[in-house]
Amino acid sequence: AFVTLDFSKVDIDKVRKAAMEHGYSKSMATAWKRSGILPLEISRQLGYNELATAFKIDATSKPLPIKVEIDEQLATIAGLWLADGCYDGKYSLIISVDDEESRRIVREFAAKCDLQARMHSDGVSLIISNTNLVFLFKEVLKLSGNSYTKKFPQWTFNLDKEKLAALLCGL
């Protein structure tokens, strides 16, 4: 995993040393600086996590904000996923929705993440391709399982009334 950050506040010599300690070549620090990314474990070790603005699972994926607020829109998307969503491996989030209102909600959520929701080949589902989004849903929000094993994650039990209503609307 990687974080994106402003390298003007980073000591590149410390990054080079840490890179070598983690088995990277010394020149990787320059490549990370050019890309504006730093491996999460090095960012943690050097205390740069406060500077991080976004996270990425791999170096080429489109980053997502490091802080994600569970607002009514995300609660609704979580409800839609619990109702009829799945993953296409580690690459895509798929939500089966056949009404235009639900499709609008999914498309607006994707746009908010600077991503695009497109029609799946089944003609019903919308698919959002982003490894970071799948990681966020599976590992952070704990939205996992299949049609028979999905459960409400623990965080859903602490939602305020408006967000809980939005989650339930997604179902």
Overall number of strands: 8
Q: What is the H/E order?
A: EHHEHEEHEEHEEHH
Cross-sheet strand order for the largest sheet: 2-1-3-4
Strand content: 15-25%
In DSSP terms (H or I, runs of 4 or more residues), the helix count works out at 7
Beginning-to-end CA distance, first to last residue: 32 Å
Average pLDDT works out at 94
| Low-pLDDT stretches | none
Radius of gyration: 18 Å
Estimate the helix proportion, in percent.
40-55%
What is the 3D form?
elongated
Q: Which sheet architecture does the biggest sheet show?
A: 4 strands, antiparallel
Structural class: alpha+beta
Question: Can you put this structure into words, describing what you see?
Answer:
The chain is α+β, with helices and mostly antiparallel strands. The chain is 42% helix and 16% strand. It has seven helices and eight strands; from the N terminus they run E-H-H-E-H-E-E-H-E-E-H-E-E-H-H. The strands form two sheets. Strands 2-1-3-4 form a four-stranded antiparallel sheet. Strands 5-6-8-7 form a four-stranded antiparallel sheet. A hairpin with a 3-residue loop joins strand 5 and strand 6. Helix 4 packs across helix 5 and helix 4 runs parallel beside helix 7. The longest helix is centred in the middle third of the chain and has 13 residues. It is elongated. It starts with a strand and ends with a helix. 32% of the residues are buried. The model has no long low-confidence stretch (mean pLDDT 94).
Concise synopsis of the structure shown:
By secondary structure, this protein is of the alpha+beta class. Helices cover 42% and strands 16% of the residues. It contains 7 helices and 8 strands, in the order βααβαββαββαββαα.
